[in-house]
Amino acid sequence: MGRFRPNKYLVRHVISLLVILLAAVVGVLLYFNERDVRQQEHFVGDARTANGVYIDTSIQKVDPVARELTLRVLVLPQGSLREGGDPYTPAVDLRVETSSLIRGTLDFKAGRQVSYEDVKVSLDGGSVSDYPFDRYSTIIGFSAEAAGKEVPVSLSLRDVDAFFKPTVVGRSQDHGFVAFEVRVSRSRATFILAWFMMFIMWGLALAVLGATWVIVDQRRGLVWPAMAWMAATLFALAGFRNAAPGGPPVGCLLDYAAFLWAEAIISACLVAVAVTGIITETRHRGDEAPEVHADHHTDAHASGDAGGDGGH
């Protein structure tokens, strides 16, 4: 019996399928991991306090250009501070002091249902030009008074912004003031996609450079399909760069690490192919012209000889 030899093409297809399946599984696992991390809720304060204020907060949007963070706040009275047991209606006037320098105080009247309030908190440190490696820090803190008297506060924090990941690095509770010390950085998906975009930009630039080397070295003249591809790549990269998540400003690290270099390389390659092609085409036409003239001269001389022979 002959030895069984697997079909090499079948083996390649199976290996390719396994690689694709493995990549898909890894991607799904990374997604679930990031989703679980992002849905975490952080808490500070005494949850057992019966007659205090519970403040539920969520980070709605991080604006690194304006250097501010938008926080959605819901203030809920607890215990005897509720009117008729309604968790959304305070029995007395509530005043909540925040760590925001833009809107420092939130007031809620007795007998009126509370509503969500948007509070902007300033961001410290970091620079948006460091995209996607920029990081910021801030303090999110609250204290409360009911009818002019200080009451205990418990605070929770969640994240909603898909482009940034807040990390609680510290908690504090002192004299009725509770706070989170938060470090804000780009989300994992944003970070991965930004790196992927930089690799793509360099890959396209090097591909154009390699094609240019072949065309110029072989003196192929004006290769219109190649020039159209290079020009399309040049302008497509601009739109590709503007699609970067989080809207990075012009002149960020992404530009200096990949985009500007890619645009410069592709532009130079396009000009080199065009100039070399023009020179090559001009030389070819110059070489063909004398040959055509010589052919006409030979034909005329042959006609003259034929006429002379006919006379004799």
Q: What's this, in brief?
A:
The chain is α+β, with helices and mostly antiparallel strands and 312 residues long. It has helices at residues 8-38, 188-217, 224-242, 253-311, and strands at residues 42-44, 53-63, 68-77, 82-83, 86-90, 94-98, 105-108, 117-122, 135-146, 149-151, 153-159, 164-174, 177-186.
Q: Notable features of this structure?
A:
312 residues, alpha+beta, 5-stranded mixed sheet, 4 helices, 13 strands, elongated
Could you walk me through the main structural features you see in this protein, from its secondary elements to its overall organization?
This protein has helices at residues 8-38, 188-217, 224-242, 253-311, and strands spanning 42-44, 53-63, 68-77, 82-83, 86-90, 94-98, 105-108, 117-122, 135-146, 149-151, 153-159, 164-174, 177-186. By secondary structure, it is of the alpha+beta class. The protein has two domains: 39-185, no CATH class; 190-305. The strands form three sheets. Strands 6, 7, 9, 10, 12 and 13 form a six-stranded antiparallel β-sheet that branches. A five-stranded mixed β-sheet has the order 1-11-2-3-8, with no helix packed on it. A two-stranded antiparallel ribbon has the order 4-5.
Q: For the terminal residues, how far apart are their CA atoms?
A: 90 Å
Report the average pLDDT across residues.
85
Low-confidence stretches: none
What is the N-to-C succession of helices and strands? HEEEEEEEEEEEEEHHH
Strand content: 25-35%
Number of domains: 2
Instruction: Summarize the biggest pleated sheet.
Output: 6 strands, antiparallel
**Helix-residue proportion:** 40-55%
Task: Label the overall shape.
Answer: elongated
